[in-house]
Write a structure and sequence with these properties.
The protein is an alpha+beta fold. The protein is globular.
């Protein structure tokens, strides 16, 4: 995944490579770094001293001596307060915001209402107000922020910072990074919400640091559609126009009503305690999950029916893509205890090839903030890969 160099022209590549290994392996020794990078020990030690001088790594103690004796090795780790990163998932009615340090530790998270507007400047101003409010509350100066990454539903040109099309926001060909950059003095990155979701899994789920092929599925707000992000050989697959991964329909309104009617028929029209349904029998996903956790059998039944439909989609995608792991994120991850068993059972029994029936299926440990945390991974990626920012002294 990473390449090392030994000339002056690739010195920054060596820094990025070593820095990323320190991130992945807190408490790493120079000897281990030498083995992983194939660099000379003198180059490893010099690079560590440079990074320590920049305030991004530090010595944290000593390891055990080798069987042959000698001095115990110095152990290295990142400096947690080197800088902070904002991550956001922007939905049609709310913005989910997280603040991480450079080690990927969540220092703050919250959900803020958004007033939907087809004017991108109106949305940008709301985002600005949210971030500035949090900075003021936490006493964070602009120079402590390494960057701000945002996941947005739709077709996003990540390289140029343009929203080509977003159905949820009703945006067409909007240079959103440019608009946001006028409000913030730090680096801004945007990408599709499912793409940042899979990036978050790759960069912040320690179990998946080295996984090459990851299929990530994001389902929010009443199950209308699925967003999918696919990491192929450590890189996001975007398609020719950055439009890959959109699955337009998941639980259509007609199907949703059929599931509800099955629940009413099985458990009675008064099966939801203290909940008033409108004439269309619309009920939100969050209420269903809340009721299921309280033991409401009708809600549990509905979630299992949703799990069956989701398993059918996963079967199609596993047959097509053959990923190493499937990760489910977004609001639906809150229903893991009710839908995980039925999804795993049905996928294993319905996939075509025998060799993929044991494909691991897991739910994002980041829950409803999986998209926002994935947004922060856009910035982490810039600091820890060979095409990242130039390390600058921030002391």
């Amino acid at each position: 995944m990473f390449k090392s160099g030994s000339t002056k022209l690739v010195k920054n590549l060596n820094q990025q490579h070593i820095l990323n290994l320190v991130r992945i392996h807190p408490g790493i020794s120079a000897t281990f770094l030498k083995e992983k990078t194939n660099l000379q020990m003198s180059t490893v030690l010099y690079t560590l001293k440079v990074l320590m001088g920049e305030g991004i790594v530090k010595e944290i103690g000593y390891g055990n001596s080798t069987v042959n004796g000698g001095k115990p090795p110095v152990l290295w780790d990142l400096v947690a307060d080197y800088g902070l990163i904002f991550g956001m998932e922007l939905l049609s009615s709310e913005a989910r915001l997280v603040l991480l340090n450079i080690k990927g530790e969540v220092k703050y998270k919250n959900i803020f209402p958004i007033q939907l507007s087809s004017d991108p400047n109106v949305i940008a101003n709301q985002i600005k107000d949210i971030v500035k409010k949090v900075q003021t509350k936490l006493h964070i100066l602009d120079n402590r922020i390494l960057g701000f990454g945002i996941g947005i539903p739709g077709t996003i040109d990540n390289e140029n910072g343009i929203i080509n099309y977003s159905y949820a926001l009703d945006f067409h060909n909007v240079d959103f990074c440019k608009i946001l950059s006028d409000s913030f003095p730090f680096h801004i990155e945007i990408d599709n919400d499912a793409n940042v979701g899979v990036l978050g899994v790759k960069w912040l789920d320690k179990e998946e640091y080295m996984t090459r092929h990851i299929l990530y599925l994001s389902i929010n707000k009443n199950f209308p559609s699925i967003g999918s992000g696919f990491l192929f050989d450590h890189k996001i697959y975007r398609g020719i126009n950055s439009a890959a991964g959109e699955i337009q329909s998941f639980i259509a309104k007609s199907m949703w009503n059929r599931i509800l009617n099955k629940a009413f028929k099985k458990f009675g029209v008064d099966c939801f305690d203290n909940i008033k349904l409108n004439n269309d029998k619309v009920i939100t996903q969050s209420i269903i999950i809340e009721q299921a956790k309280m033991g409401n059998m009708a809600s549990i039944f509905i979630l299992k029916e949703v799990g069956k439909e989701l398993s059918n989609k996963i079967v199609e995608l596993v047959n097509l893509l053959n990923p190493e792991v499937v990760v489910i994120g977004g609001d639906i991850s809150e229903a893991e205890e009710f839908i995980a068993p039925i999804i795993k059972e049905r996928v294993a029994s319905k996939v075509i090839s025998e060799v993929v029936k044991n494909t691991p299926i897991k739910f994002s440990p980041m829950g409803v903030y999986s998209g926002a945390i994935g947004g922060s991974a856009l910035i982490l990626k810039k600091y820890f890969t060979d095409n990242g920012f130039k390390i600058e002294n921030r002391k």
